[in-house]
Automatic annotation (TrEMBL):
Residue ranges of the region described as Disordered: 131-164
Domain of life: Bacteria
Organism taxonomic ancestry: Bacteria, Bacillati, Actinomycetota, Actinomycetes, Pseudonocardiales
InterPro entries associated with the record: ABM_predict
Chain intervals with Low complexity compositional bias: 143-157
Transmembrane region(s): 68-88, 95-115
Species of provenance: Lentzea rhizosphaerae
Keywords: Membrane, Transmembrane, Transmembrane helix
Name this protein carries in UniProt: ABM domain-containing protein
Amino acid sequence: MEKASGDSGDWLVICWFDSAESAGEWARSRSHATWREYVGRFATRVEPPVQAPPAAGPPKPPPRWKTALVTLVAVFPAVLLVNVTVIPRVTGLPLLARTLVLCVCVTVLMTWVLMPQVMKVLGPWLRRGTPAAPPAPRPEVDPAPAKASTSISSTTTWRGLQPP
């Protein structure tokens, strides 16, 4: 038995079975009918909620050629700007230091200035035609693993039922 959600007065009664046949036998048994009648004296049965389809997984990445083109659209002006404005001021530094200055300036421009603007403009085009990935499989948590390789669960929701 577990609480359906944080604020809800609903409780879930979850029964695990080793097969669909065992679940069917339990549902048709006198023990199940007696149990439902007993619990029904203290609580109201609520029909299980309709399960919404699983949310789509993360979107698939765009084609690499689109990613490369968008990157080039942002990198080229950044490198040109730094080569024209910053590099002439550091010509006395060794090649390694000038390259470091170029990389730091371009990285800062790309991260905080250019790519956010480029993505605002080209983002819809970049994502167009890339379908969402299929839903990620949900891991099954079985608190009492069945002896068989598969297990079936049956969930009934009751309102007003208090756990022991």
